[in-house]
Amino acid sequence: VNIIHRDDCIALISRLIQRDQWGECFNACSDQHPQKQAFYNLAAQQLGVAPPQFDEQGGSNKVISNHKIKSSLNYQFQFPDPMVWLQANKQEAE
Question: Quick one: what percent of the chain has pLDDT higher than 90?
């Protein structure tokens, strides 16, 4: 999945505004791109809900790159790996 943590999203938007960087297109996503089933199954487990059902035929395997936004804004993601964040979140809840 191409996903971004809320805190990274807000930080990137703030930095774009501060630097008055308009008229460009940036991809904003975490550094790591876990498999959709792994990410959403773990998230469902953490929420205590039934895991989602996945269509094995559909979907895209496109992975977007965050290189441009990281280099243009000199930004390092606070949450570069969504699976690590989910695991840490699980440990805090226990």
Answer: 73
pLDDT of residue 62: 85
- Quick check: 14 and 57 in contact, CB under 8 A? no
Per-residue DSSP letter, 78: S
**pTM (predicted TM-score):** 0.83
CA 5 and chain centroid, separation = 5
- Buried residues in 13-30 as b, exposed as e (16+ CB within 10 A): eeebeeeeeeeeeeebbb
DSSP 9-74: HHHHHHHHHHTT--S-------S----HHHHHHHHHHHHTSPPPP--SS---------HHHHHHHT
* Contact between 75 and 69 (Cβ < 8 Å): yes
pLDDT at residue 94 is higher than 80: no
